[in-house]
Design brief:
The protein starts with a strand and ends with a helix. It is globular, with a radius of gyration of 17 Å. Strand 1, helix 1 and strand 2 form a beta-alpha-beta unit. It has one domain: NAD(P)-binding Rossmann-like Domain (Rossmann fold, 3-Layer(aba) Sandwich), CATH 3.40.50. It has 234 residues and is of the alpha/beta class. The strands form two sheets. Strands 3-2-1-4-5-6 form a six-stranded parallel sheet. It has a two-stranded parallel ribbon with strand order 7-8. The chain contains twelve helices and eight strands.
Length: 234
Protein backbone atom coordinates (compact mmCIF):
# COMPACT_ATOMS: atom_id res chain seq x y z
CA UNK A 1 0.00 0.00 0.00
CA UNK A 2 0.96 3.63 -0.49
CA UNK A 3 0.63 5.29 2.92
CA UNK A 4 1.22 8.88 4.00
CA UNK A 5 1.79 9.75 7.66
CA UNK A 6 1.36 13.31 8.93
CA UNK A 7 3.14 13.52 12.26
CA UNK A 8 6.39 11.99 13.47
CA UNK A 9 5.74 11.73 17.19
CA UNK A 10 5.62 8.47 19.11
CA UNK A 11 2.67 6.96 17.21
CA UNK A 12 3.64 8.33 13.80
CA UNK A 13 7.24 7.13 13.98
CA UNK A 14 6.18 3.74 15.34
CA UNK A 15 3.71 3.28 12.51
CA UNK A 16 6.38 4.29 10.01
CA UNK A 17 8.73 1.63 11.37
CA UNK A 18 6.14 -1.12 11.44
CA UNK A 19 4.47 -0.34 8.12
CA UNK A 20 7.75 -0.13 6.20
CA UNK A 21 8.79 -3.43 7.79
CA UNK A 22 5.64 -4.94 6.28
CA UNK A 23 6.70 -3.72 2.85
CA UNK A 24 4.38 -0.75 2.49
CA UNK A 25 5.55 2.40 0.75
CA UNK A 26 5.47 5.11 3.42
CA UNK A 27 5.99 8.85 3.24
CA UNK A 28 6.13 10.78 6.51
CA UNK A 29 5.84 14.49 7.17
CA UNK A 30 5.92 16.81 10.16
CA UNK A 31 5.72 20.52 10.90
CA UNK A 32 9.51 20.93 10.86
CA UNK A 33 10.10 19.79 7.30
CA UNK A 34 11.69 16.78 5.56
CA UNK A 35 15.23 17.55 6.75
CA UNK A 36 14.20 16.84 10.34
CA UNK A 37 13.10 13.35 9.30
CA UNK A 38 16.38 12.26 7.71
CA UNK A 39 17.34 9.89 10.52
CA UNK A 40 13.92 8.22 10.65
CA UNK A 41 13.89 7.89 6.87
CA UNK A 42 17.36 6.31 6.89
CA UNK A 43 16.33 3.90 9.65
CA UNK A 44 13.05 2.78 8.11
CA UNK A 45 13.23 3.36 4.38
CA UNK A 46 10.27 5.72 4.58
CA UNK A 47 10.39 8.86 2.47
CA UNK A 48 10.81 12.15 4.32
CA UNK A 49 8.13 14.38 2.83
CA UNK A 50 6.23 17.62 3.07
CA UNK A 51 2.62 17.55 4.24
CA UNK A 52 1.53 18.10 0.65
CA UNK A 53 3.59 15.12 -0.52
CA UNK A 54 2.28 12.85 2.25
CA UNK A 55 -1.25 13.80 1.24
CA UNK A 56 -0.63 12.35 -2.23
CA UNK A 57 -0.50 8.79 -0.86
CA UNK A 58 -2.89 6.73 -2.92
CA UNK A 59 -4.30 4.39 -0.29
CA UNK A 60 -4.16 5.69 3.28
CA UNK A 61 -3.29 9.00 4.96
CA UNK A 62 -2.70 8.82 8.72
CA UNK A 63 -3.08 12.08 10.64
CA UNK A 64 -1.27 11.67 13.94
CA UNK A 65 -0.70 15.14 15.38
CA UNK A 66 -1.86 17.05 18.48
CA UNK A 67 -5.50 18.08 18.25
CA UNK A 68 -4.60 21.77 18.31
CA UNK A 69 -2.53 21.34 15.13
CA UNK A 70 -5.33 19.84 13.06
CA UNK A 71 -6.88 23.21 12.26
CA UNK A 72 -3.48 24.38 10.97
CA UNK A 73 -3.29 21.70 8.27
CA UNK A 74 -3.99 23.12 4.79
CA UNK A 75 -7.42 21.76 3.86
CA UNK A 76 -6.69 21.94 0.15
CA UNK A 77 -4.19 19.08 0.39
CA UNK A 78 -7.05 16.68 1.17
CA UNK A 79 -9.42 17.96 -1.50
CA UNK A 80 -8.26 15.75 -4.35
CA UNK A 81 -7.45 12.55 -2.49
CA UNK A 82 -9.55 9.40 -2.51
CA UNK A 83 -7.36 7.78 0.15
CA UNK A 84 -8.78 6.68 3.48
CA UNK A 85 -7.91 9.28 6.12
CA UNK A 86 -7.18 7.88 9.59
CA UNK A 87 -7.28 10.09 12.68
CA UNK A 88 -5.20 8.83 15.61
CA UNK A 89 -5.49 12.00 17.68
CA UNK A 90 -6.80 12.78 21.14
CA UNK A 91 -8.02 16.01 22.69
CA UNK A 92 -6.26 17.15 25.86
CA UNK A 93 -7.33 20.70 26.81
CA UNK A 94 -4.19 21.36 28.86
CA UNK A 95 -2.13 20.81 25.70
CA UNK A 96 -4.56 21.80 22.95
CA UNK A 97 -6.51 24.64 24.53
CA UNK A 98 -10.28 24.54 24.68
CA UNK A 99 -12.14 23.48 21.54
CA UNK A 100 -15.73 24.65 21.95
CA UNK A 101 -17.29 22.22 19.52
CA UNK A 102 -15.79 19.20 21.26
CA UNK A 103 -16.57 20.56 24.71
CA UNK A 104 -20.12 21.04 23.43
CA UNK A 105 -20.53 17.35 22.67
CA UNK A 106 -19.04 16.71 19.23
CA UNK A 107 -16.88 13.58 19.10
CA UNK A 108 -13.24 14.49 18.70
CA UNK A 109 -12.89 12.81 15.32
CA UNK A 110 -16.09 14.41 14.04
CA UNK A 111 -14.41 17.75 14.69
CA UNK A 112 -11.28 16.54 12.89
CA UNK A 113 -13.38 15.52 9.88
CA UNK A 114 -14.93 18.98 9.82
CA UNK A 115 -11.53 20.66 9.99
CA UNK A 116 -10.12 18.52 7.17
CA UNK A 117 -13.25 18.66 5.05
CA UNK A 118 -12.96 14.88 4.69
CA UNK A 119 -14.50 11.77 6.23
CA UNK A 120 -12.10 10.10 8.65
CA UNK A 121 -11.71 6.75 10.39
CA UNK A 122 -10.78 6.80 14.09
CA UNK A 123 -8.05 4.28 14.96
CA UNK A 124 -4.74 3.89 16.82
CA UNK A 125 -5.74 6.58 19.33
CA UNK A 126 -6.27 4.23 22.27
CA UNK A 127 -2.99 2.33 22.32
CA UNK A 128 0.32 3.60 23.66
CA UNK A 129 3.30 3.78 21.33
CA UNK A 130 5.25 1.19 23.32
CA UNK A 131 2.38 -1.29 23.11
CA UNK A 132 1.99 -0.56 19.41
CA UNK A 133 5.69 -1.24 18.92
CA UNK A 134 5.96 -4.41 21.02
CA UNK A 135 2.63 -6.16 21.52
CA UNK A 136 1.79 -7.23 17.98
CA UNK A 137 1.53 -11.03 17.73
CA UNK A 138 0.20 -13.57 15.21
CA UNK A 139 -3.55 -14.07 14.91
CA UNK A 140 -4.91 -16.55 17.41
CA UNK A 141 -2.26 -15.85 20.04
CA UNK A 142 -3.87 -15.80 23.51
CA UNK A 143 -4.07 -12.29 24.92
CA UNK A 144 -3.78 -10.60 21.53
CA UNK A 145 -4.56 -6.90 21.95
CA UNK A 146 -7.63 -5.61 20.11
CA UNK A 147 -7.92 -2.11 18.61
CA UNK A 148 -11.21 -0.36 17.92
CA UNK A 149 -12.00 1.33 14.61
CA UNK A 150 -14.84 3.84 14.27
CA UNK A 151 -16.19 5.54 11.15
CA UNK A 152 -19.10 5.91 8.80
CA UNK A 153 -17.63 4.09 5.77
CA UNK A 154 -17.71 0.33 6.30
CA UNK A 155 -15.22 -0.43 3.53
CA UNK A 156 -12.79 2.16 4.84
CA UNK A 157 -13.04 0.66 8.31
CA UNK A 158 -12.43 -2.81 6.91
CA UNK A 159 -9.29 -1.56 5.19
CA UNK A 160 -7.98 -0.06 8.42
CA UNK A 161 -8.84 -3.25 10.30
CA UNK A 162 -6.76 -5.13 7.73
CA UNK A 163 -3.76 -2.93 8.53
CA UNK A 164 -4.32 -3.49 12.24
CA UNK A 165 -4.42 -7.26 11.74
CA UNK A 166 -1.20 -7.15 9.71
CA UNK A 167 0.47 -5.22 12.53
CA UNK A 168 -0.33 -8.04 14.94
CA UNK A 169 -3.54 -6.90 16.61
CA UNK A 170 -7.21 -7.79 16.37
CA UNK A 171 -9.41 -5.13 14.80
CA UNK A 172 -12.91 -4.36 16.06
CA UNK A 173 -15.60 -2.31 14.33
CA UNK A 174 -16.62 0.18 17.02
CA UNK A 175 -19.48 1.79 15.13
CA UNK A 176 -19.95 5.19 13.56
CA UNK A 177 -17.73 8.22 13.93
CA UNK A 178 -20.32 9.73 16.26
CA UNK A 179 -19.76 6.74 18.54
CA UNK A 180 -15.99 7.19 18.59
CA UNK A 181 -16.30 9.05 21.92
CA UNK A 182 -16.33 5.56 23.42
CA UNK A 183 -12.59 5.23 22.73
CA UNK A 184 -11.57 8.77 23.70
CA UNK A 185 -9.18 9.50 26.60
CA UNK A 186 -10.39 8.45 30.02
CA UNK A 187 -12.97 5.95 28.81
CA UNK A 188 -12.81 2.27 29.81
CA UNK A 189 -11.54 1.44 26.29
CA UNK A 190 -8.64 3.88 26.37
CA UNK A 191 -5.09 2.47 26.48
CA UNK A 192 -5.72 -0.66 28.55
CA UNK A 193 -4.41 -3.19 25.98
CA UNK A 194 -7.59 -5.25 26.11
CA UNK A 195 -8.42 -8.39 24.16
CA UNK A 196 -11.48 -8.54 21.90
CA UNK A 197 -13.99 -9.51 24.59
CA UNK A 198 -12.57 -6.99 27.03
CA UNK A 199 -12.62 -4.19 24.47
CA UNK A 200 -16.20 -4.96 23.44
CA UNK A 201 -17.23 -4.80 27.09
CA UNK A 202 -15.30 -1.57 27.69
CA UNK A 203 -16.86 0.16 24.69
CA UNK A 204 -20.32 -0.88 25.86
CA UNK A 205 -19.57 0.25 29.41
CA UNK A 206 -18.71 3.82 28.40
CA UNK A 207 -21.28 6.31 29.70
CA UNK A 208 -22.19 9.29 27.50
CA UNK A 209 -23.14 11.21 30.62
CA UNK A 210 -19.54 11.00 31.82
CA UNK A 211 -17.74 12.29 28.72
CA UNK A 212 -16.72 15.53 30.42
CA UNK A 213 -15.58 13.58 33.49
CA UNK A 214 -13.56 11.15 31.37
CA UNK A 215 -11.87 14.06 29.62
CA UNK A 216 -11.10 15.96 32.80
CA UNK A 217 -9.61 12.92 34.52
CA UNK A 218 -7.49 11.98 31.50
CA UNK A 219 -6.32 15.56 31.07
CA UNK A 220 -5.28 15.82 34.70
CA UNK A 221 -3.37 12.53 34.48
CA UNK A 222 -1.58 13.67 31.31
CA UNK A 223 -0.51 17.10 32.56
CA UNK A 224 2.94 15.94 33.79
CA UNK A 225 3.71 14.52 30.34
CA UNK A 226 2.74 17.74 28.59
CA UNK A 227 4.46 20.09 31.04
CA UNK A 228 7.93 20.11 29.37
CA UNK A 229 6.41 20.82 25.95
CA UNK A 230 4.17 23.54 27.31
CA UNK A 231 7.12 25.14 29.11
CA UNK A 232 9.14 25.29 25.88
CA UNK A 233 6.25 26.93 24.03
CA UNK A 234 5.85 29.82 26.51
Amino acid sequence: MDIGIMGSGHIGSTLARKLTALGHRVSIANSRGPASLAALAAETGATAATVEQAARARDVIIVTIPQKAVSELPRHVFAATSAVVVDTGNYYPSRDGRIAEIDGGLAESQWVAQMLGRPVVKAFNNIGANSLATRGVPAGTPGRVCLSVAGDDVRAKQGVQGIIEALGFDGLDAGTLAESWRQQPGTPAYCHDLGRAGLEAALAQADAGKIAQYRAEADEAARPYFAPTLARST
